[in-house]
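Bumping with the actual sequence this time:
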Amino acid sequence: MQAARGVTIRAAVAADAAALHALLAAAYMPFRARFVPSASRLEPAEIAARAADWLVLEAGDDVVGCVLSEREDDFWTFSYLAVRPDRQRRGYGGALVEAAAAQARAAGRRAVRIAVRRELAENVRFFRRRGFRFEGELTAGGAHDIYRLDLED
């Protein structure tokens, strides 16, 4: 799947696990002062075991972004959206969101959902700019809200 000139989005393979683990650690490091990101608890073996559910964004030969994209009931969900800090603000995160939405459409799903940590206003804005709307709290009193993007046919 071609995202932009020189950028490719592809399905991950088990051999990508170490690179994705390092990418997630780097991308989520800035948040560690506020909370412990769930992405920081993922181990390479867990990533490898679910490699088919991960999308990888490559710029040239470098893995610079990833997202876990998977089917759930009547909708599609994705999590662990990450772009290497030195490659952010180039549209790579948006390209990964579009790729996850394309997977959902191809699978016949009508919506894409993501849980967003409420305190990360910049992330909430990122998803709202892409058409996601607030659906509700992930769990009552929890730290995450669910945002939903309805997909057109």
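The tokens above came from a reply further down the thread. The chain has four helices and eight strands.
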